[in-house]
């Protein structure tokens, strides 16, 4: 462990115990995230439809850039002891249910949950009324039906591993390195092709 990391731990412990500061930090990060989504253009219905039609690649560029940064950032936080990685076991059933819910909302509005919030913030009425209302109703219905679908569907066909590096039986940093090279390669290819 680095000395600087050890010195910062009491500050993080104090932040963890202060709920109001956590809410303020979360709100600030959420506002920044929405601002960046809007500036990146991914809160625009036409941009998302363009991505689905393989005519506009802004969405994939923004998403790959976010994953490239977050993948390294999260694992560095875990490595230095600032965070703990908690991975929930997955299953084919939970992926199918989640995919159906996500896909239905995406098909109806052309927006995903993150971009719905960003689009609502820009004043898009379809995102505000259809999206936010849909997310709240959907979350309520899921919570209501969760006990029934938990054993019947969500645990159906458990996945063989919880992480990609666990599935491949490789060191986490090797998998991260390979994934980073692949994602950066895709971004470079898109730039080279002018997409």
In short:
Helix content is 77%, strand content 0%.
Give structural notes.
With 195 residues, the chain is an all-alpha fold. The chain has one domain (3-193). 77% of the residues lie in helices and 0% in strands. The chain has helices spanning 3-17, 19-40, 45-52, 58-79, 92-109, 113-121, 125-154, 164-168, 172-193. The longest helix has 30 residues, at 125-154. The N and C termini lie far apart (43 Å). 9% of the residues are buried.
The first-to-last residue Cα distance is 43 Å
Q: What gross morphology would you assign?
A: globular
How confident is the prediction overall: mean pLDDT?
85
Number of helices: 9
Radius of gyration: 19 Å
Q: Which strand-content bin applies to the residues?
A: under 5%
The SSE order reads: HHHHHHHHH
Q: Which structural category fits the helices and strands?
A: mainly alpha
Point out poorly predicted stretches.
none
Determine the fraction of residues in helical runs and give it as a percent range: over 70%
Number of domains: 1
How many β strands by DSSP?
Answer: 0
Notable traits:
195 residues; mainly alpha; 9 helices; 0% strand; globular
Q: What is this structure's SSE topology?
A:
Layout: H1 3-17, H2 19-40, H3 45-52, H4 58-79, H5 92-109, H6 113-121, H7 125-154, H8 164-168, H9 172-193
Helix pairs in contact: 2-6, 4-9, 5-7, 6-7
């Amino acid at each position: 462990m680095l000395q600087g990391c050890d010195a910062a731990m009491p500050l993080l412990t104090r932040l963890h115990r202060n709920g109001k500061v956590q809410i303020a930090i979360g709100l600030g990060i959420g506002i920044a995230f929405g601002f960046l989504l809007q500036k990146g253009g991914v809160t625009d219905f036409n941009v998302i439809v363009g991505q689905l039609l393989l005519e506009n690649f802004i969405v994939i560029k923004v998403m790959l850039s976010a994953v490239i940064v977050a993948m390294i950032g999260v694992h560095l936080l875990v490595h230095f002891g600032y965070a703990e990685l908690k991975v929930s076991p997955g299953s084919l059933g939970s992926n199918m249910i989640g995919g159906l819910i996500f896909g239905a909302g995406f098909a109806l509005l052309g927006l995903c949950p993150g971009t719905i919030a960003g689009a609502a913030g820009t004043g898009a009425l379809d995102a505000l009324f259809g999206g936010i209302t849909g997310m709240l109703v959907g979350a309520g219905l899921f919570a209501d039906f969760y006990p029934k679908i938990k054993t019947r569907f969500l645990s159906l066909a458990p996945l063989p591993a919880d992480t990609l590096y666990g599935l491949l039986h490789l060191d986490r940093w090797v998998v991260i390195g390979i994934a980073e090279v692949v994602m950066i390669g895709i971004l470079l290819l898109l730039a080279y092709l002018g997409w």
